[in-house]
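Case study 2.
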Amino acid sequence: MSRKPSLRARLVRHVLLPLGLTWLLGTGVTVGVAYYFAQKAFDRALLDDAHALASQVRVAPAGLSLELSTDEMSAVLFDQSELVFFAVLRPDGSVLAGHPGLHAPSPQGQARSRFSEIYYQGQTLRSVVLRRREPAPFEVVVAQTMGSRNALLHNVLLYSVVPQVLLLLLLAVWLRRIIGQELQPLTELQRSVDLRDALDLTPVPVSASSRDIEHLGTAINALLARVSHSMRAQREFSGNVAHELRTPLAGIRALTEYGLAQQDPVLWREQLQRIGASEARASRLVEQLLALALAEEADAGVQTEPVALNDVVHETVLRYMPRADVAGVDLGVQGLEQPFKVAGNVALIEGILGNLIDNALRYGRAPQGQASAVTVVLAQREGEVQLSVIDNGPGLTPQERSHLVQRGVRGMQAERLGQGAGLGLAIVAKFAAVLQARFELSDAPGGPGLCATVSFRVLASG
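Prediction:
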């Protein structure tokens, strides 16, 4: 597998590449502009020499003449570094004075001068042709070698490009160093995670130099907190299973051993019935433990949605009707006529109502000689939708109410009946907390019994 470049190298490259391209374009424009105006200055000097020569052309009786001596000509066309050539041409193209054979393109139209590059005596020259019509038509050609122009271009390139290249290299070194310093907290965070034990879920130290690294460290610590919460829930679930299943499994084993020691088929049948009842209690215990584990996992955040509470209540109560009939309990519902929508989760709401009805059927039996009744009530009060399960059993004392919502705590009635493991109301309390609902236990209105109420946030209809 190919080795990928470091983040620092990528950042330096992504910064320097557009910067270098911008510098290259800017340098090209700068050199071009500087060379253009330098050429203009050289051309202007060449044109001045042509004007100086043209001003010395006179009309004599024999025709045009150039009134300059050799010394004067040398003074006018003096250049310490370049060779200068000239020619004064008559309208027919013959040479009045100057270097024979020196010709250049003439101005076109109404133009009075024209610059061009020509080849003369084995050299490339920069030339200008000046056209005059007074005192008589003639042209002046002045040309010079281009050594100074080329040297100027080289100097412009040297003194503008080389310093900027050096500055670009210094900038690359500085960027690499400063980016490395800025990324040092990220390196330390990586080292801290690499050296950490798999079971160490404590927050990692973050020395952030920027908001982005701080957010990354916060996100990692939040992830560690969620993983820690999940692992704690798993350990707690394992402990609950080991603790809660020990008693029913030991009871099943004792019943089995006792039955096998007997010879009477009637005792065998009786023991098998007890084993079946113990197995049913163990199965329900496992279901409750799984539900509690689900609630612990959902505590980090559960997706809520608009739920038609009437439909959930109707379907859940129907599922418990056969069991209520077998137990001789009158299971009824009130408040289904008016539709209610709450913010919740169908599975959790079913778990809440199922556990409340199950507790009422188990422990909310009326005293001997009275008819047992369990009523599910839906009502809206003060911006909340209240789901209540009311029985006419012995009820609970205030101290028992506060303790029963704790995991593994059982009431006196449950102890007497030998049922459950004290998880039902703890599950209801946990589910309600996950759904941001309120769970309360109170006396049944109008008589003995218990009223368990869960208050949900109501949603506007529409």
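Confidence is low (pLDDT under 50) at residues 407-422.
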